[in-house]
């Protein structure tokens, strides 16, 4: 069973954490911290930190940036997501997966013409279901990350086989590899790199409790030492039943219930439960008010779960000024990608949902005028085997992913296109790709864009020092 990430903390911000705050906000944080200390340790953490952030947000220059992780649970089949299109490599792809391959004719409309050509005449195409994001690629707002995956350090195939360089632990395990993608550690990790990044930015926000917002469900990605993920849904956060204006027809009863579930307690577990409840009530009220007064989007979104999640993210971003936010980290997700069978019939529908949702989100951000300030990236447990098991593909390692936004140097590929072969130079077995680009390098590039200093990168990504490049150059 997957362990839940650490989502809340109690007490005051650790002194060690203050030293990690960006220098722009550190002095303001300390000044405001002394001002709110009279509230006492019993006050809800988010409310204390929000008070600190009120003034700090004003010193941040009013800029805004957000990172949006789109996680595809189950291990997306990269082989039928970004597909070899040149005649030689498409023929090799078809020979390896004859029951799964998409014909070259069917790929003609989604063949990509990058601004920087791949070497050796290589060409790639998007899955037909991703046709909605081809215009985003062509417009230079979408980049393709080739053969990216979890790595502890750069590794050659010979080093993998000899064990000379440690491979990520528990390869090919869903829970562990999704945790490694999100946290740099296996299942049971306490913090994720999105949360550790947010730790450095809390004081920049008017409502620190809304720095990390998860629209799909609990995920380690957004858990930090101080940052916690605020859970909502495509329809917004539902209020706690019974604490409104009436309960059993009585306003006094409603007030009594609210007091009971939010008052200070002496027992540690009761005290923490009530702190979390008070924080939830406060943030739900604040968020609901901000959403009600926010911009009304004219961009159309589909009715599927991922599209609805991204529509909510767009609505929350539209309310950023009302909430006093300058830095935010969002998480949305969809499942269904563990396709050991029925891949050729089920994967195209998943691609259509992903493509449609990303395209609508891109359009909504342009409508809001914040396309340059929001960067979206896809992630998944792992890729799948290039070889077919007959009706599907099994657990793999490296994969292809997308980075989207107005600040992305899009319209091109990043990383190295792998050999289209089984038991080839990039294959650890069955067409499982040995990644040539690390998740840590992707994360570091995004963190630097968000404003994390080079000195703080190792706080966010403990393994980044093992890689020669911490900036892959795909962000402006």
What does this structure look like?
By secondary structure, this protein is an alpha/beta fold. The protein has a single domain (15-235, 300-466), classed as Alkaline Phosphatase, subunit A, CATH 3.40.720. The chain has helices at residues 15-18, 23-36, 45-58, 87-96, 104-107, 134-138, 157-162, 174-183, 193-199, 251-262, 268-292, 305-318, 320-323, 343-368, 439-450, 457-460; strands at residues 65-72, 82-84, 124-126, 142-149, 212-214, 229-231, 327-334, 374-380, 399-404, 412-415, 437-438. The radius of gyration is 23 Å and the shape is globular.
Q: In CATH terms, what is the architecture?
A: 3-Layer(aba) Sandwich
Largest sheet: 9 strands, mixed
By helix and strand content, what is the structural category? alpha/beta
* Amino-to-carboxy terminus distance: 40 Å
Provide a concise account of the structure shown:
The chain is α/β, with parallel strands linked by helices.
Keywords:
single chain, 476 residues, alpha/beta, Alkaline Phosphatase, subunit A, nine-stranded mixed β-sheet, two-stranded antiparallel ribbon, 16 helices, disordered N terminus
Topology:
Layout: H1 15-18, H2 23-36, H3 45-58, E1 65-72, E2 82-84, H4 87-96, H5 104-107, E3 124-126, H6 134-138, E4 142-149, H7 157-162, H8 174-183, H9 193-199, E5 212-214, E6 229-231, H10 251-262, H11 268-292, H12 305-318, H13 320-323, E7 327-334, H14 343-368, E8 374-380, E9 399-404, E10 412-415, E11 437-438, H15 439-450, H16 457-460
Parallel strand pairs: 1-7, 1-8, 4-10, 4-11, 5-6, 5-7
Antiparallel strand pairs: 2-3, 4-9, 8-9
